[in-house]
Amino acid sequence: MRPSIVSRHSEATARTYILLPVSPLWVYATIALAYVLNVSRLSSFPWAPDFLAVTLVFWTVREPRITGVLLPFLLGILMDVFDGAILGQHALSYMCLCFCAHLLERRIPWFTPVGQALHLLPIFLITQAIVLFIRYWMGGVFPGWIWFLQSFANALIWPIASHFLLMPQRRTQNKDDTPI
Amino acid sequence: MQSGTPPLFRQGIPAKVRFLFFTLLSLLLLLVDSHLRVLEPVRVYVSVFVSPIERVVNAPFEVISLASRFFEGGVGQVKELDRLRSENEALLIQADRTAALLEQNAQLRTLLGLPVDPDVGAAVLVEIKGAVGDRFSRNIVLNRGGNSGIRGGMAVTDSKGLLGQVVRVYPEECELSLITSRGFQTPIQFERTGLRAIAEGVGETDKMRVLYVPANADVVQGDTVITSGIDGVFPRNTKVGVVTSVVRQRGETYAFVELQPQAMIDDGQFARVHLRFTPRARDAYRGQNAARPSQRPSGGSR
């Protein structure tokens, strides 16, 4: 048993890159892109993921010092205005997500992208449940169980999103096979 | 002397405290915005910055849908054009007749010394853009706003009947709450008998219930229901719906009456916003809860 685990571990480490430092500009650019995707027609379907939530969670896990706490809050307000929702609904959802991401900040990067998605799925679901509870309690219409589909969509695009978001940091891979 | 070690790295307020602060702030915002209307200006200012981005992002999608509609053309469009031409002829004749009647009516009113009919007023034709993104409300977005004279609280009708009331106004668009939304109350009248009652939305698009119809009242299936206009918000004699069921139970003071709304709640394309902004409409709009637009403190239901 033991040798196989060791070998698998070494395989995993062999595949990992030493990432370049991230550029804050890239972080802000991807967040802006996610916002644009969120306000586009693509997001009008119930199965559309919340691109902004995924991006914010990703950068909160990777670079919490760049995203901070104020940015998710303000973006939440922007999404509320766009959606015509009660002000604070998306802000609350993004705060919950980023807080959980902050708690799991040390643990998540150890897993493969699929494992990370499995870690984040319950977080997405809990956040949606909180928002659902609060809005229903305030006299909203029950949007149906299809409401929770978004969490699964978020978890599904997580591996793709994390691959894409890490691209510029992975760029120069030192082959290290040149003779000295 | 203080003898604590100085902090090695200044980190400011701990992250957890900051998260907690902003979470509480968003909860506070939720509470304030769902019960008061003080945050509406904030929303309008933010939307002025946000809506151009939205428009630019969605421009390619608009072009694609326009192009697909342009190319699908053919026989169907020719038929549609014929139908619209004949309909337009009929409508023009009707409009002529209506204009004559209106003038006659105004003259008769002046002869009798009656005040000008408040329900005959300016209206804006608007296009229905679709439902709002928020999945917790069934509100609808219209393509005109404050710049066209629309104010919160104004009544909206379509070609078939009463559609709802404007609840939120931006410079170039506005949001409408449907008469079928949960808790939305409309003062109504049965056209055949003149009996007044209140219709209330139950959150379904094809059903409303009528409150306070006495059990012995003369109401039968198929009765037409119109607005009574006593609220000063909705124009009088606008069609609301048709009674679909009347159930009288022994021992109940009121009959259970259900009606089907006449307006095209789900698939309308155009609507009219009545530019009448009476003091009562304004008061009703200000005192309202954002989630339940037309509810007034009026006794328990049934």
CATH topology group of the domain at 119-296 in chain B: Thrombin, subunit H
Coarse structural class of chain B: alpha+beta
Report the total helices of chain A: 8
By CATH, the architecture of the domain at 119-296 in chain B is named Beta Barrel
CATH first level of chain A: Mainly Alpha
Order of helices and strands of chain B: HHHEEEEEEEEEEEEH
Unreliable runs of chain A, pLDDT <50, ≥5 residues? 1-14
Which keywords apply here?
heterodimer; A: 180 residues; mainly alpha; Arp2/3 complex 21 kDa subunit ARPC3; 65% helix; elongated; B: 302 residues; Thrombin, subunit H; six-stranded antiparallel β-barrel; six-stranded antiparallel beta barrel; 4 helices; globular
What's the layout of helices and strands?
The complex is a heterodimer of chains A (180) and B (302).
Chain A: H1 2-15, H2 24-39, H3 51-62, H4 64-67, H5 70-83, H6 89-103, H7 113-137, H8 149-165
Helix pairs in contact in A: 2-3, 3-6, 3-8, 5-6, 6-7, 7-8
Chain B: H1 15-35, H2 40-72, H3 75-112, E1 123-131, E2 140-142, E3 155-157, E4 162-169, E5 174-178, E6 185-190, E7 196-201, E8 208-211, E9 224-227, E10 239-247, E11 256-261, E12 270-274, H4 279-287
Tell me what the structure shows.
The complex is a heterodimer of chains A (180) and B (302). Helix content of chain A is 65%, strand content 0%. Chain A is mostly helical. Chain A has a single domain, classed as Arp2/3 complex 21 kDa subunit ARPC3 (Orthogonal Bundle). The longest helix of chain A is centred in the last third of the chain and has 25 residues, at 113-137. The model of chain A is unreliable at 1-14 (pLDDT under 50). With 302 residues, chain B is of the alpha+beta class. Chain B has a domain at 119-296: Thrombin, subunit H. In chain B, the strands form 2 sheets. Chain B has a 6-stranded antiparallel beta barrel with strand order 1-2-5-4-3-12. Chain B has a 6-stranded antiparallel beta barrel with strand order 6-7-8-11-10-9. Chain B is globular and about 90 Å long. The A-B interface holds A 35-36, 39-41, 43-44, 46, 64, 69-70, 72-73, 76-78, 81-89, 91-92, 95-96, 98-99, 102, 134-136, 138-141, 143, 147 and B 15-16, 18-19, 21-23, 25-30, 32-34, 39, 42-43, 46-47, 50, 53-54, 57-58, 61, 132-139, 141, 168, 175, 181-183, 203, 289-292.
